[in-house]
Design brief:
heterodimer, A: 641 residues, Rossmann fold, 2 domains, two-stranded antiparallel sheet, 27 helices, 59% helix, elongated, B: alpha+beta, SH3 type barrels, five-stranded antiparallel sheet, 5 strands, globular
Chain lengths: 641, 73
């Protein structure tokens, strides 16, 4: 049994995630590279008695010193010295992808080239001479298709049998470049090449202005690739990508945006309508079947009433109230995953670019915003694709306004009570308000505290692909798991604490209105009266919602003292007594905009690496939430009354 | 001429990118090197465009396309 460290490198859209998932299954974890906020993905697998430690390197098109991710990838390869480096390239686009490969070979790394998606070659009318490719590069080449599970065993065989290469192919540059390389002295050749590329510093004894060859080296490396490919890849028949035909419609000047709007509306409508079928079933299950069952069981066992109340009202009411909405959230993640895996997400960025540019952002900002509809935590992490630090900060600060799945149950509950028949419109209006606030705030930041160079879209647009079930299931499961864990930990604990706060005060067990919770709520409530929901129940609800937004729903049953077997219908009555439709809507506006949940606060701290921006984010969201919900209530009262 | 002025479907050859070091390097690493031929395959009015470059599709914001100097191939 031997251990092997295997690094995975490749361009975006080379199928790296699919291969990583294929190799490690769910057996992986995601963290950060030491000291920086670039994602580090590691996983394990065993193959024929060998334990393989697989690490997915960031870095994309090159190993330059300009990009943090590429620098991390380069440092890892040079300092940690993995036994094997798998360089993944898509078969149909060797030209661009071999650029990275050539750098890896120049750096004399133990690299195996995995040529992926070979199943697409025939359809695309291409033929690759793998022998010739191996000969030309001087490294092992393995044709695979990670999506169809072809060649994976061969690749793993190569990995476990890998012996370091005795020597590496040397790619010769033009006379000018070679002469400069000679003049730079005795350092290893790859270091001298990197000096010319300005990725390593040129020693001070050589005047840097004599070596302005960055552009030349890059250009010639591509020329080397083109010469090499003449003997490797052959076009057998002409081919037009169906993706281009699809784009004629989906990216059409006039139709592109309306279609995108329609797609998004459909996503929300489906999330809403399919999800609600399950909501009724689950609600019935938790509030009647489970709660009733527990009550019956406890009675027979003669358990004291306070424990029954804790389990039934506190835990089942709280955790169950949140789990009821799990199907909605799972469906939303299915759609987000489909948008990502199909290749449409990048096109959405392209379609939105023009409009995002008007508020000083670019189309790439739109991807984290879309992901925010699922959960703001991964969405904020995905802002890592924005290169400029100021851009990233803006993207992080506005992301919590994108209404996440956890806020959805709150909308549904209130909308079903106060706006029956118009639930969808009410919920949609909140999502749109979130986008509007996010974009306006971004514009404001751009003009004031976060001025910076304009940033523009540079984004590779992949071929459309039929999403793979395996990736879809893994992706959705990861998110659903997070939600379940949250329900089992944060929400579970919060439900118990809240139950205690609402059933006790210093004198012991008391009625709801005299409890700790009511006291706390009454202390804060006056602040909210301007927005129309100055009752202690809402105040306490919102306060506890900072743990997780779902708690605003989960604790409703507890707060209104409905006791066991409170179904959504029972909640309706209690809410109707405390809200008018107008104050209910103002309340929802507040829930949409106010301080994000602890998980998001944590990720903001981690990603900005700054207490200042974390507290700033909490503070300004609270201000905006107050201002807008009060405005809604006051203006609404004016017109209505 | 600037890349923004090029119509959809036209093949061009790159002369120069007049842009700051970091973004320019990224574009070069992606294959946008002097002398390379590429085609504009999608374009929006007053917005970004998509080029087909070395077998890949790359979307470029308008602000960048304004600073990329090309000739008709």
């Amino acid at each position: 049994m031997t251990d092997r460290h295997v690094a995975l490198v490749g361009n975006p859209n080379s199928g790296k995630t699919t291969l990583f998932n294929r190799l490690t299954g769910a057996n992986h974890y995601v963290g950060n590279w030491a000291g920086v906020t670039v994602e580090k993905k590691e996983g394990f697998t065993t193959y024929k008695g060998h334990r393989l430690h697989i690490i997915d390197l960031p870095g994309k098109y090159s190993l330059s010193a300009y990009s943090l991710e590429e620098k991390i990838a380069r440092d890892y390869l040079l300092e940690e010295k993995p036994e094997v480096v798998i360089n993944l390239v898509p078969a149909a686009n060797l030209e661009r992808n071999l650029y990275l490969t050539l750098q890896l070979i120049e750096m004399e790394l133990p690299v195996i080239l995995a040529v992926n998606m070979i199943d697409e070659l025939e359809q695309k009318g291409l033929k690759i001479d793998f022998e010739a490719l191996q000969e030309a590069l001087g490294i092992r080449v393995v044709p695979i298709s990670s999506a169809r599970n072809q060649g994976i065993d061969t690749l793993l065989d190569e990995v476990i049998q890998f012996e370091p290469y005795p020597e590496f192919r040397q790619f010769t540059y033009s006379e000018v470049v070679e002469k400069a390389l000679d003049q730079l002295g005795d350092e290893p050749r790859w270091q001298r090449i990197k000096m010319l590329e300005k990725d390593l510093e040129i020693p001070p004894e050589h005047p840097a202005e004599d070596y302005l060859l960055e552009e030349t080296v890059i250009k010639e490396r591509y020329e080397i690739i083109n010469r090499l490919l003449e003997k490797v890849i052959f076009r057998e028949k002409s081919y037009r990508s169906p993706s281009d035909a699809i784009d004629k419609v989906l990216l059409n000047k006039y139709l592109g945006l309306p279609i995108f709007a329609l797609v998004m509306a459909l996503v929300f409508y489906m999330t809403f309508s399919i999800g609600n079928i399950f909501v009724d079933i689950l609600d019935e299950f938790f509030s009647v079947t489970l709660s009733g069952g527990v009550a019956g069981l406890f009675e027979r066992l003669d358990v004291s009433p306070w424990l029954l109340s804790l389990v039934s009202d506190g835990i089942i009411g709280g955790v169950g109230g949140v789990l009821t909405f799990l199907p909605n959230i799972a469906i939303l993640f299915v759609f987000i995953s489909l948008l990502e895996d199909s290749g449409y997400m990048g096109r959405a960025a392209y379609l939105m670019d023009k409009w995002m540019q008007k508020v000083g952002l670019n189309g790439k900002f739109f991807i984290p915003m879309l992901l925010g509809f699922g959960c703001n935590v991964p969405a904020i992490m995905s802002t890592r694709t924005l290169e400029n630090p100021k851009d990233r900060l803006v993207a992080i600060l506005i992301n919590p306004f994108m209404s996440c799945g956890a806020r959805f149950p709150v909308y549904v509950l209130f909308a079903s009570v106060f706006f029956a028949g118009y639930e969808f419109m009410v919920v949609l209006s909140l999502y749109l308000l979130g986008i509007l606030v996010a974009v306006s705030v971004a514009y404001l930041f751009r003009k004031t505290i976060l001025k910076g160079e304009e940033s523009f879209l540079v984004l590779e647009i992949p071929d459309y692909r039929i999403p793979r079930m395996r990736n879809l299931v893994l992706h959705v499961w990861e998110r659903v798991k997070d939600y379940l864990v949250k329900a089992g930990t944060v929400i579970f604990a919060a439900s118990i604490i809240l139950w205690f706060l609402l059933n006790y005060n210093f004198t012991g067990g008391v009625a709801l209105v005299d409890s700790f919770g009511a006291m706390i709520g009454r202390a804060i409530a006056p602040v909210f009266s301007l927005a129309g929901f100055g009752n202690w129940q809402s105040a306490l609800s919102l306060l506890s919602g900072i743990f997780a937004k779902e708690i605003v729903v989960s604790n409703t049953a507890i707060i209104y003292g409905l006791g066991e077997a409170a179904s959504l219908r029972d909640l309706g009555g209690a809410l109707a007594a405390n809200f008018t439709p107008l104050s209910a809507y103002a309340f929802l506006v507040f829930v949409l905009l106010y301080t994000p949940c602890v998980a998001v606060i944590g990720v903001i701290k981690r990603e900005t690496n700054s207490w200042f921006w974390m507290f700033f984010s909490l503070g300004y969201q609270l201000v905006i939430a107050f201002a807008l919900s009060a405005a809604v209530y006051q203006l609404g009262s004016l017109f209505a009354g | 001429m600037a890349l923004v002025e090029v119509n959809k479907g036209i093949k061009v050859v790159l002369n120069n990118i007049a842009y700051g070091a970091s973004l320019k390097r990224k574009l070069q690493d992606m294959g946008l090197t002097p002398g390379v031929e590429f085609t504009v395959i999608s374009k929006t009015s007053h917005g970004p465009l998509i080029i087909e470059l070395r077998g890949a599709r790359v979307a470029l914001g308008r602000g960048i396309a304004e600073k990329i100097d090309v000739s008709i191939a």
